Amino acid sequence: MTNYIVEDDTKFLDQWFKGDAAGFSLLYERYKDRVFGFLLRMTSDRQLAEDIMQDTFVAALRNRAQFDRKRNFLSWIFGIAHKRAIDYFRHVKVESDHVDDTGKSIGSAETLPDDVLAKTRLSQAVQSAVAKLDPLQREVFLLRELGDVPFKEIAELMACPINTALGRMRLALKNIRKELEGQGIYGMH
Predict the structure, then answer these.
(1) 2-92: which CATH topology?
(2) Where in the chain are the domains?
(3) Inter-residue contact 99 to 71 (CB < 8 Å)
(4) pTM over 0.70
(5) pLDDT tens digit string along 18-66?
(6) Distance between CA 78 and CA 35 in Å, rounded?
(7) Closest CA to 85 of 146, 152, 30, 126
(8) Is the dihedral of CA 53, 57, 59, 65 positive or negative?
(9) How far is 1 from 57, CA to CA, in rounded Å?
(10) CATH number for the segment(s) 102-182
(11) How does pLDDT run across 63-117, given as a tens digit for each residue?
C-alpha cells in the first residue's frame, strides 16, 4: 500500500508542479488529518493545531520549489509542520506539555464496558507518560509514531546525527515503559 500511495503522490505532485491546483488539493485531502493529529499532539490545543496545519500547507504551496522529488511528500509536509510548531513555541517562549491524545485514535468502540474502561485508562496512562518525556524525546517519538517519518529525516529535521535521533527514541520508549510500569501496566514493548 505504501508504494501505491507514493505512486499516487507522484501523480498528484506532477499535476501540482504543472500548475494544476487539483494535485495539491488531493495531497492536502490525503494528509491533512495525519498532519493535524501530529500537531494536536505537539500542541495539545485543537485551534492552535488547526492554525499551524493551515500555515504548514500554505508554506508548502509557497515553497514548492524547495521540495526534493527524491523525498516523499508526507515526510516533507511533516517536516514543515514540525518546524512551524517549534517556531510557534519559540515565538511565545512557552514550555508546553505535548499530550498524546490516543484516546480518540484507539479504533472502533467496544461493546463491553470493561474493555472501554481499560482502553481509556491505558490511553490516559500513555498520554501521561508521553507528556512527561523530555521535549526532544517527545518530538522524536511523535514524529516517528504519528508521522511515520524515517529516522534519517527526523535527524535532519532536528539538526542532529541519526544516532542521536535513534538514541532519543530508545530513551523515549524506555521512559514510557518505565512510567507505565510505575502505574502497574506491564508488557508494553
Answers:
(1) Rna Polymerase Sigma Factor; Chain: A (1.10.1740)
(2) 2-92, 102-182
(3) no
(4) no
(5) 888 888 899 999 999 999 998 988 888 899 999 999 999 999 988 888 8
(6) 7
(7) 146
(8) positive
(9) 24
(10) 1.10.10.10
(11) 888 888 877 888 889 889 988 888 887 765 433 333 333 333 344 444 455 555 6
